[in-house]
Every structure is written in C-alpha cells, then in structure tokens.
Amino acid sequence: MRRPSRDRINIPYYINGTTLCNGSPTSEVLIKLMIKGSWKYRHGLSKTRPNSEGNFSLTAQVPHYEQRKLILKFWHKCNMTSKDYRIFYYKTYSLNLTDGSKWFKGRINYLLGEIELSNKANGNKHVPYLLTI
C-alpha cells in the first residue's frame, strides 16, 4: 500500500474566539479562513458569522502545503464614520495564523480569545456578496 503524497494531506483546523466592538460583543462580522495569495482558495476555506454574544468557531481542512500562509479575515462595520457607512462597505482586518496553535484530539486548535475590532482595519472594501453566507 502506498503512502499518500504530501500535497494530498489535509490537516483539520478548529478556530474559535469572540469578536468585540468597543468592548461589547458584536455579531455583525463575517469571518473567513483564507490562504494568503492563493488564487485556488480565493473564496476561503471556511466562513462563519458570530452568534449574538460574539462567539464564533470555524472548522476547515487545510492542505498541508498551505499551512504557513493561513490568515483569518474579518469584515466588519465597527466604528464606521457616516462617510464610510454605506450598505455595501465593510472594514477589513486580517490576522495571520502562523503561531499559537496546539495539536489536540487529532486537529490543530486556535483559541484566539477576544478580538477587539474597533480601530482595526486594513481598508474599506465594496463587497456586496458578503451580505449572505
């Protein structure tokens, strides 16, 4: 029996945390696990929205050769000014997932804790497709 090739091995990931806006839990966030610079996975490996308490969890099967390029992207409207606040505009914030993981029960776990989104943005994006998951 042959071993599977390295590029066909997928690693299970589990990521959870809480999103906050000005210290209060927020559910108005779209969260995607993505591979930085990858055309093949440009739509993300997994996506979710937090519940009313701001808690979220993601699970995904990540290709072995793409683990070092993982990012968690947040689209949110925390602290939007009236100039920025349009129905299809979101602030984006990226978090690199290269360190801080633990292997537990057959998967890689990231326990992110609280993520404060106020004043955290890499830019504003016009993203009408984000309104639905």
From TrEMBL:
Pfam families: TTR-52. The keyword Calcium does not apply. Keywords: Secreted, Signal. GO terms for cellular component: cell surface; extracellular region. It comes from the Eukaryota. Belongs to the nematode transthyretin-like family. This is LAGLIDADG_2 domain-containing protein.
